[in-house]
Amino acid sequence: MASAHRGHGTARPATGGTATRPPLHRVARTAPAAASLLLAVLLAVLCVLLGVPGASKSFAASGASGTSGAPGAPGAFGAGTTGVSARALPEKVVIVGIPGLEWSDLDRERTPNLWRLVGEGGSASMSTRAVPPPDRGITCPVAGWLTVSAGRRAGAPGAGCEPPRPPEPAPGGGASVPGWAELSAFNATTSYRPVLGQLGELATGAGLKVAAVGPGAALAAANKSGKIGKYAASIEQLGDLSPYGLIVVEADDLTRAWTGVGRTPAGTADDPADGTPAGTADGMTGQARREAVAGADRVVGAVLDRLPPSRGTPSPGTGTTVLVGGLADTSVVPHLHVAIARGPSPDGGTYARGYLTATSTRQDGLVTNTDLTATAIGLLNMKIPNGVVGRPWLGDVPSGEPVAATAGKLADDDLASQVLREVRGPFFAVFVAVQILFYLLAAAAIRRGWGGSRALTAVRVVAVVSGAIAVSTFLAQLVPWWSLPAPMFWVIVTILGLACAVAGVALAGPWRAHPLGPLTVVAAVTSVALLADVMNGSTLQVNAVTGYEPVTGGRFYGFSNIAFAVYSAGTILALAGIAQWLISRGRRSLALTVCAAYGGLAVFADGWPAWGADFGGVPAFLVGVAVFLILLSGGRVSPVRLFLAGLAGGLLIGAIAVADWLRPAGQRTHLGAFVQQVLDGEAWTVVGRKFGAMIGVTVGNWSLSLLTLVALAFLFLVLDRPSRWGASALGRAYALAPALRAGLIGALACALIGFLMNDSGIAIPAMALTVAVPLTLAACVRAVRLSPPTTPGRPSVPAASTAPPSP
Question: pTM, whole model, 2 decimals?
Answer without folding.
Answer: 0.81
